């Protein structure tokens, strides 16, 4: 694969007599490092450096021509200076455009020939020797721009030119020897410095770019997109359940898998793409001049190329939109990856980049078009009576043209556009303000999306809202889904622990739809389990026994958690659930989501207390 002309494939390994695995591994690393493409030489850096070399070369030639050479040779070498300046101008003109790495190789050879010609044109003497000093640029940019092999070929070409100039007496033997020595020292120093700089951006295990290197490449590709409408796309791919691979088979096996995948992915990527190891179990790639559909195809290709190992992948893709920063683009692609993991893994999510829709939603949040509906939650364990216990806040978009929109129409957009934090905070503030006006025994449940939960400041934000609205912490429940906790456990769990320490309760929403395992319930930082309505809808007068629901209710009781059943639509379901010991219920039978929680309303809303069976 060429990545901005960068070949990140595994390096060739020289086999020696001693073949202990450690020695071989060290040798492999060493060879790979030495033979890798210099990552500091991006197209812009090469264009700038190349232009500067040519322009200084032109200036030196002109000065020497005017100061040292005889009037007879002026025109010839001034012409050469003009040619060098012209080459410099070409390099400046090409700055930022997508000039192939090999064009710089051609410029290098032309530069070497030009210097040799000027030396010949100025004739033997001080002038020729001064101009020959410019040969130092040959190893300088060769080892800066290219891998070791092409760089030493260019270097050797310069040495041959010097030797020929010495043989034809344009330069003296000591001058040639001195210049070859200086050039060799420059070559060693530049090659070493460039490779040392690269290791800071290289993942030692796979030899790919690391996160810093990848971010830099994305910034540089984004900055080098010249014309309007040109785009680039990013893809993130993570191995599903990689931690389990490591714990079951050992980290050596995990390392081998990562190395194998990096080689396989490199060979599958389209030309011009760059692959990086972005995290412990994840890779990222950037494809210039591609849109989201092409990046999605590439990602599918990568996943398919490795599915024979029985592993699955989750992926996220985003294509740049006009004026977008590199960090915003990376964060959109990562949000898409998180969505794929949250939705159950083994899938690819493409980030929406419908700018008009994003702008409309941002405007709606800013101008208060979002409104909160409340759905009653009742206690089922009141000896045959259902008593109002609180409500769940459910967001709606009161759209000026399309009417009242349900969350299914805009939550995904808010998540992928990075607006979910703002949306969630406004719903939380509104819900807490409302709940503070209700009788003290009523609590309010507010949904939090995975994107919010993994933000380091989420818990602090919730506590600040409680502070502002005056609602006491024990009246607030934050609902999170199981897949969120599964997808990015670290930061999410830290937030939940802070919230619980402050007295806020945490409910596990949609229980039974994700990776539910009853045995995991005691390890999660939760207080309430909300049984998904798919379990409740299966219960009816005719089908009044569900061992699964019975077991779920029993285990939550044993663990000291509360169980809330969602989607109760008829009295039979309520009765069966109450019989199983389910603590609370929610559903159309008790009340649909409505703009306010009217406790005394006689019809259509919760009337409480009412008999559980209606
Ligand atoms: P959820 O948290 O599972 O919310 C319950 C959903 O089930 C609500 O849909 C509610 O109207 C519906 N529902 C309640 N009782 C019944 C019933 O008896 N039968 C049936 N068929 N459905 C019932 P809604 O309001 O459309 O919300 C859908 C989802 O949107 C919510 O699912 C929640 O995941 C998300 N959501 C809603 N508000 C917010 C919010 O403020 N922030 C975030 N992040 N997500 C939200
Ligand atoms: Ca919920
Ligand atoms: Ca739910």
CATH fold assignment of the largest domain: TIM Barrel
Major sheet strand order? 6-7-9-10-11-12-13-14
Instruction: Look at the structure and give the mean pLDDT.
Output: 83
Write down the Rg.
Answer: 34 Å
Strand content: 5-15%
Distance between the termini: 67 Å
Say which CATH homologous superfamily of the largest domain is assigned.
Answer: EAL domain
Q: Which architecture name of the largest domain does CATH use?
A: Alpha-Beta Barrel
- List how many beta strands DSSP finds: 15
Classification by helices and strands? alpha/beta
> Helix count, per DSSP?
23
Cofactors and ligands: ligand C2E, calcium ion
C-alpha geometry: elongated
- Poorly predicted ranges (pLDDT <50, ≥5 residues)? 1-20, 599-609
Report on the structure:
This protein is of the alpha/beta class. The protein is built from 23 helices and 15 strands. The protein has helices at residues 21-35, 43-67, 74-94, 101-122, 126-132, 137-145, 148-167, 173-199, 211-223, 242-249, 251-268, 292-305, 326-342, 355-366, 411-416, 420-435, 450-453, 458-469, 482-487, 489-501, 533-537, 547-558, 571-579; strands spanning 232-239, 274-279, 282-288, 313-319, 348-350, 370-379, 385-399, 403-405, 443-447, 476-481, 505-511, 528-531, 562-565, 584-586, 610-611.
